[in-house]
Backbone:
C-alpha cells in the first residue's frame, strides 16, 4: 500500500460562537486508511456536532457545528505518520 502524504494542509480559522467551521486537508491517494481528526488531542467521531467526510476521494473535511468557547484549540488531521494542525 502506498505511503499516503498530505498534499494540502489545514488552514487556521477564526469563527464566531454559534457558527460552523470547516477544515480541509488534501491527501496524495484516494481511499486513505488510518485517518484521524482531533480537537485538543481528543479524537473526533462523526456525529451531530462533528461532520467528517471525504470529497473526491482525496479531500478530507471536518465541519464543527455551532462552535462554542470550549471548541477553541488545535485541530489535528493525521494520516499514517503525517499530521497537519490549525
Residues:
Amino acid at each position: 500500500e502506498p505511503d499516503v502524504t498530505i498534499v494540502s494542509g489545514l488552514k487556521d480559522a477564526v469563527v464566531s460562537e454559534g457558527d460552523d467551521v470547516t477544515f480541509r486537508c488534501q491527501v496524495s491517494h484516494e481511499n486513505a486508511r488510518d485517518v484521524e481528526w482531533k480537537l485538543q488531542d481528543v479524537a473526533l467521531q462523526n456525529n451531530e456536532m462533528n461532520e467528517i467526510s471525504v470529497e473526491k476521494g482525496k479531500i478530507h473535511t471536518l465541519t464543527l457545528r455551532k462552535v462554542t468557547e470550549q471548541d477553541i484549540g488545535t485541530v489535528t488531521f493525521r494520516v499514517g505518520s503525517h499530521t497537519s494542525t490549525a
Summary: The chain has one domain: 6-85. Residues 34 and 80 are 6 Å apart (CA to CA). The radius of gyration is 13 Å.
